[in-house]
Amino acid sequence: MLSLFAILILLFALILLMVPLKGTIYIYDVLIQDIKHLLHQINMTVPHTLRERNQCSDFMTKLEASSDVDLLLHESPPDGLVNLL
Predict the structure, then answer these.
(1) Which of 16, 19, 25, 84 is 20 to 30 A from 50, alpha carbon to alpha carbon?
(2) Phi/psi of residue 75, each to 5°?
(3) How far apart are CA 47 and CA 85, in angstroms?
(4) Which distant-in-sequence residues (6+ apart) come within 8 Å of 6 by Cβ?
(5) Domain assignment present for 63
(6) Cβ atoms of 38 and 13 closer than 8 Å
(7) Is residue 46 part of a domain?
(8) Range of the domain at 35
(9) Is the domain of 29 the same as that of 55?
(10) Are residues 8 and 36 in the same domain?
């Protein structure tokens, strides 16, 4: 079983993998390669889901993009998300 730290690193890498490089040298390249190697060693695959298929994630992403707050914690699902659950 993966530790919480390993899971957080994997999530961080997944976020970085989604960012377009646009021809620049990426400072996290070594970290991403290490995580890919770790995933290969433990025989784990990370499937991709189109955002149209994941309406809850898409909703939260749009909500964050329209906010000017750096961090927002929700004690309950925001209005509009409950209908998607």
Answers:
(1) 25
(2) -80, -20
(3) 21
(4) 38
(5) yes
(6) no
(7) no
(8) 4-41
(9) no
(10) yes
Comparing C-alpha atoms, which of 60, 12, 71, 62 is closest to residue 38?
A: 12
Q: Mean pLDDT in each 10-residue stretch from start to end of the chain (85 residues)?
A: 66 68 62 78 78 79 82 84 83
- Sorted by sequence, the CB contacts under 8 Å of residue 58 that are 6+ apart come out as 51, 52
Residue 25: predicted pLDDT: 54
Here the tokens at position 24 are 């620049």
Domain count, the chain: 2
Q: How many CA atoms lie within 13 Å of 39's alpha carbon, on the beta-carbon side?
A: 16
Contacts of 16 (CB under 8 A, 6+ apart): 26, 28, 31, 32
Helix %, strand %, coil % of the chain (to 5): 55, 0, 45
Looking at residue 51, its amino acid is R
Q: What is the pLDDT of residue 35?
A: 77
Query: What residue type is assigned to position 8 of the chain?
Result: L
